[in-house]
């Protein structure tokens, strides 16, 4: 579900999304409890089977009833394995839903690295720096409308004598219009500006999937093909 954000309803999106996330997390915890309970039961069954087999080997007396009991235990374990697989698939689907919602909540966000930070920098100053950097580096034909911007990550310990930090933290900017975000990213990919790096802000799970496919991405680029990501999916095309 996609939520539209208007200047008068910024909190509505946040509350609705937070509620949906909490509901999915509750479902995820329920699945995990079921998974742990079944796993414990399986372990107990396996321990019982192993103990029974050891006793049978030691005594060399294996009655037909013992064999039947072992077969029933083996069948029960097979059934539990199937149940565990079903639960694992359910957990995977819940994780995908959470990742999708997180990406939707960030669909108008960009991450910018390379913009220097002054000590006690105010929001208006940060906003002005972002707009100036995007205009100068990307030659934009429009002025980005920024709803908010903040820096993320750990603050470096040392600053220079002029009060400007030479290792600035990443800036996360939320634009009012996702179309402006798309145009900014396209310009950044086309121009590849020096000094700053502009990227999409995505969920950590999506970024991990990017890393897993990074070798294929680089290989496609070296082969002269067009390669890009659509969320967690790598798209490769011949030019």
Outline the structure in words.
- The protein is of the alpha+beta class.
- Helices cover 59% and strands 15% of the residues.
- A four-stranded antiparallel sheet has the order 3-5-1-6, with helices on one face.
- A hairpin with a 2-residue loop joins strand 7 and strand 8.
- Helix 1 packs antiparallel against helix 2.
Which structural category fits the helices and strands?
alpha+beta
Strand arrangement across the biggest beta sheet: 3-5-1-6
| Total beta strand runs | 8
Shape: elongated
Task: Summarize model confidence as the mean pLDDT.
Answer: 77
Features:
disordered N terminus, 8 strands, alpha+beta, single chain, 239 residues
Chart the SSEs and their pairings.
Layout: H1 10-59, H2 64-105, E1 109-113, E2 117-118, H3 123-138, E3 146-152, E4 164-165, E5 170-175, H4 178-191, E6 197-200, H5 204-212, H6 214-222, E7 226-230, E8 233-237
Antiparallel strand pairs: 1-5, 1-6, 2-4, 3-5, 7-8
């Amino acid at each position: 579900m996609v939520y539209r954000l208007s200047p008068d309803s910024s909190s509505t999106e946040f509350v609705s999304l937070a509620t949906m996330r909490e509901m999915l997390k509750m479902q995820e915890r329920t699945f995990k409890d079921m998974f742990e309970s079944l796993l414990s039961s399986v372990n107990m069954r396996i321990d019982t089977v192993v103990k029974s087999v050891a006793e049978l080997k030691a005594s060399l007396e294996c009655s037909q009833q013992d064999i039947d009991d072992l077969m029933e235990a083996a069948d029960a374990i097979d059934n539990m394995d199937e149940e565990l697989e079903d639960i694992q698939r359910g957990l995977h689907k819940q994780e995908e839903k959470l990742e999708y919602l997180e990406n939707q909540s960030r669909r108008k966000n960009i991450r910018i690295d390379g913009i220097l930070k002054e000590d006690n920098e105010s929001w208006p100053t940060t906003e002005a720096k972002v707009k100036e950097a995007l205009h100068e580096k990307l030659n934009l034909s429009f002025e980005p409308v920024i709803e908010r911007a903040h820096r993320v990550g750990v603050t470096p310990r040392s600053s220079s004598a002029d009060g400007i930090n030479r290792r600035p933290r990443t800036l996360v900017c939320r634009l009012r219009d996702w179309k402006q975000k798309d145009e900014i990213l396209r310009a950044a990919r086309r121009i590849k500006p020096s000094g700053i790096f502009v990227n999409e802000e995505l969920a950590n799970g999506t970024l991990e999937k990017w890393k897993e496919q990074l070798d294929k991405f680089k290989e496609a680029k070296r082969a002269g093909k067009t390669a890009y990501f659509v969320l967690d999916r790598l798209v490769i095309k011949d030019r």
